[in-house]
Amino acid sequence: MSTSGHSRAALEKLSKDDLVDLLLKQGYRSLGKQGVETDQQPRGESSLLSSDCAQNGSSTAGADDGSKDSHAKKKQKKREPRPFDMSNYGQRHIALRLAYDGGQYCGMACQQATSNTIEGRLFEALLKTRLIVDPDKCSFSRGGRTDKGVSALGQVVGLRVRSRLSQAVIDAFSASTFPKSESRSPARSDSGGPDRDEPAQGGGYLSHEQRRQAVSLPGLAASMAAREGEFDYVRMLNASLPAEIRVLSWSPVPETFSARFGATHRTYKYFFLRNRLDVSRMRCAAALTRRCDRMRPCE
User: Fold this and answer.
1) Residue 57 in this model has a pLDDT that exceeds 60
2) Where do the domains of the chain lie?
3) Has 147 been annotated as catalytic?
4) What is the dotted CATH code of the domain comprising 88-252?
5) Where is the stretch described as Disordered (predicted)?
6) What does the pLDDT look like over 121-159, one tens digit per residue?
7) Of these residues, 101, 147, 278, 293, which one is catalytic?
């Protein structure tokens, strides 16, 4: 057997370097191309890289870059988010207790003229965290309204939100926690129609037992979240709400819960700052109104 005209006996006599040179020469001849310059050049033969090879290498690199770009574009197309489907998740009715500084907001309730309201910011956070998909279809109710610039320390709202638990677990929890109460028709407003704060599907009042039980429900919600893996609604919403609006706690409530008509009491406190107030003149003005009946038409 021979390699490039050399017998086996002749090859065995060659050194390692001679064999390497011989193999390189044989490879260049079989490919029919000029060899690439190496640290050790074959003896008696120049193997400089030609300009044609350099051009071919550049064009190959350009082709590789183009294929990488197209591959990256394909990956971007594949990563398009799928539409969110709320029906794939369990849902439950909860109550949220809020505290907010209303100094820079136009009141509590949503308004068509502006979104700068407490409810407007709350709905934005609920939509961002995908706890709801439509503010008009989450059975929302509020414990009361506050005007522009008015703050709250314990405002309560009720709504139906997405849950991490399965619907079967939620239904079993509700059945064991909330006894069935007599359903009453929605309360009537002064205009004779259903009150606007009542949930769309109607609902009843909390029974006395449910009201008593509701005192411990926020603690129950916290333990249930830790034990059963429910969403931490407080953390989720506070991460998306402005600093002036905070969720203090949440609680599971029955499906018939209304934050307005289920309230047992409301407390309003008015604070008058003494800065630059003439208290003596204010007292004189108050004394005048007490003596004039027409200044008190509501009494």
Assistant:
1) no
2) 1-44, 88-252
3) yes
4) 3.30.70.580
5) 31-88, 178-205
6) 999 999 999 999 999 999 999 999 999 999 999 999 999
7) 147
